[in-house]
């Protein structure tokens, strides 16, 4: 359910999206998912120039990258374009097959796929130089066990890119979202900033940075619940006007400054970059 929020790169374009026009007519429909990708790039995701999947998380052809909870492989598509060796794992076999097909079209050194619940991961100790797991910990029954497996498969010095929903957005939606959104197999816990940092540190990783982003998606989701439309075709005036408004804001002279200010108040996700000693 709502897996697009877990993997923002479902249709990640290779180049950074070009700036939009200064004024967007309200009548012109904006693709909310492509706008979300552009917004994510502004927050530090998918930087083709620096080779960073996320700010502070560079990927090169020399890396062995594991993505646990990979979905259909959006994040790893970026890593594949860098020429890295890729290992993907997810509990959903259909998603893994989609990831396999997508990643086979990249210049990745190799692609290895696993259907698994992560307990344990069918991957040898000390395999990866980079470990990715985005928007997964809020779903799993035992976060400590899950993190222990992520740590086990990383080499000494490996970098970790981990994210979970930010509590500001989760709390905002609690009384508005569909009840199933906060029931298994969806979000069974809300993780505070301090809890997230403690989880990662207790797993034996050194936290390098902790950031947050995604005001656009937080507001979009709030309106989505009210619009009561199908996610495959989220066409509703509330959502269309919001996407147009956000695109116009990003095009304004102080759009980036306003975006940053809003994301300190309400963010869709929090991201930790960590290192294995």
UniProtKB/TrEMBL annotation:
SUPFAM superfamilies: S-adenosyl-L-methionine-dependent methyltransferases
Pfam families: Methyltransf_11
An annotated GO BP: methylation
Alphabetized CDD domains for the sequence: AdoMet_MTases (cd02440)
Signal peptide: none
UniProt key word Nucleus: no
Protein's name according to its UniProt entry: Class I SAM-dependent methyltransferase
Organism, as annotated: Pseudomonas shahriarae
């Amino acid at each position: 359910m709502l897996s697009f929020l877990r993997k923002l790169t479902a249709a990640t374009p290779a180049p950074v999206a070009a700036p939009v026009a200064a004024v967007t007519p309200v009548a012109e429909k904006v693709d909310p998912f492509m706008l979300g990708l552009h917004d994510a790039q502004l927050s530090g995701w998918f930087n083709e120039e620096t080779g960073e999947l996320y700010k502070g998380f560079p990927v090169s052809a020399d890396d062995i990258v594991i993505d646990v909870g990979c979905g259909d492989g959006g994040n790893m598509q970026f890593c594949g374009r860098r020429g890295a060796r890729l290992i993907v794992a997810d509990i959903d076999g259909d998603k893994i097959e989609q990831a396999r097909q997508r990643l086979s079209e990249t210049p990745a050194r190799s692609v290895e796929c696993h259907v698994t619940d992560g307990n344990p991961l069918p991957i040898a100790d000390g395999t990866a130089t980079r470990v990715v797991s985005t928007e997964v910990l809020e779903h799993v029954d035992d976060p400590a066990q899950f993190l222990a497996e992520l740590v086990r498969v990383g080499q000494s010095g490996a970098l970790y890119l981990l994210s979970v929903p930010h509590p500001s957005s989760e709390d905002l939606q609690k009384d508005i979202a569909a009840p199933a959104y906060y029931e298994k197999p969806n979000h069974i816990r809300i993780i505070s900033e301090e809890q997230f940092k403690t989880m990662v540190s207790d797993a034996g990783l050194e936290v390098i940075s902790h950031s947050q982003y995604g005001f656009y998606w937080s507001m979009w989701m709030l309106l989505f619940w009210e619009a009561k439309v199908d996610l495959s075709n989220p066409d509703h005036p509330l959502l269309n006007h919001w996407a147009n408004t956000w695109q116009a804001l990003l095009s304004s002279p102080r759009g980036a400054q306003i975006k940053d200010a809003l994301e300190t108040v309400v963010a869709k996700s929090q991201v930790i970059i960590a290192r294995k000693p």
